[in-house]
């Protein structure tokens, strides 16, 4: 029986239910990016991270190949996390403006961060079956977050994954469309909020910037 995050995380890390993902995450851990050639990659599923009493849950689609899959922590060690944590820090949700490795001292305040899929998928495109396999872990995370009020989906693909999850597990049939700072009521008294993904592409094209992202996070805090 899973009754705490420690037992859940142990199950997540040991999971081998998706052969394609197991093969790919191990491949990435061997065929390292040149700048990390001397590092030992994590190369296993990634569990969630943060405040177990959190009211806010941030959700990405999956770990980054050379971010979470390398460092062992979600949104850690890549350009997306670099931007995200600058915003979380400005919104006073994190104690520092960077997330680089497991021992960097990072803490979240009233927030938890995870991914719908716990392993890095080829081409950042999981199959429906792979997502459904991971939804059991995602559901357990939501159930363990007893104070949860808001889910923030980081990117359209993560947003769609959250909607699929609620359709599968909570008989949610309402048609909703992704939009930055768009709010939707979910069946279990949770608000789902869309946010642009903190990717370099979105930042470089001006779709998102630090002020826009930080303002959304501050808006969420006011709602709570």
What does this structure look like?
By secondary structure, the chain is α/β, with parallel strands linked by helices. The chain has a single domain (5-223), classed as Uracil-DNA glycosylase-like domain (Uracil-DNA Glycosylase, subunit E, 3-Layer(aba) Sandwich). Helix content is 40%, strand content 11%. It has eight helices and six strands. A six-stranded mixed beta sheet has the order 1-3-2-4-6-5. Strand 5 (183-185) and strand 6 form a beta hairpin. The mean pLDDT is 96.
Brief account:
The protein has about 220 residues and is of the alpha/beta class.
Give the helix/strand layout.
Blueprint (H helix, E strand, L loop, with lengths): L4 H10 L4 H12 L18 E2 L5 E5 L7 H4 L7 H12 L20 E5 L12 H17 L5 E5 L1 H15 L12 E3 L5 E5 L4 H5 L5 H14 L1
Parallel strand pairs: 2-3, 2-4, 4-6
Antiparallel strand pairs: 1-3, 5-6
Helix pairs in contact: 4-8
Keywords:
224 residues; 6-stranded mixed beta sheet; Uracil-DNA Glycosylase, subunit E; alpha/beta
The CATH H-level superfamily is Uracil-DNA glycosylase-like domain
Instruction: Indicate the proportion of strand residues.
Output: 5-15%
CA(first)-CA(last) distance: 31 Å
The structural domain count equals: 1
Instruction: List unreliable stretches of 5+ residues.
Output: none
What is the level-2 CATH architecture name?
3-Layer(aba) Sandwich
Q: What characterizes the major β-sheet?
A: 6 strands, mixed
> Strands across the major sheet, in which order?
1-3-2-4-6-5
Number of strands: 6
Helix fraction bin: 25-40%
**What is the overall silhouette?**
globular
Which structural class fits the helix and strand makeup?
A: alpha/beta
Stated plainly, the CATH topology is called Uracil-DNA Glycosylase, subunit E
CATH class: Alpha Beta
Radius of gyration computed on alpha carbons: 16 Å
- The helix/strand series, from N terminus to C terminus, equals HHEEHHEHEHEEHH
Q: What's the helix count?
A: 8
Quick check: average pLDDT? 96
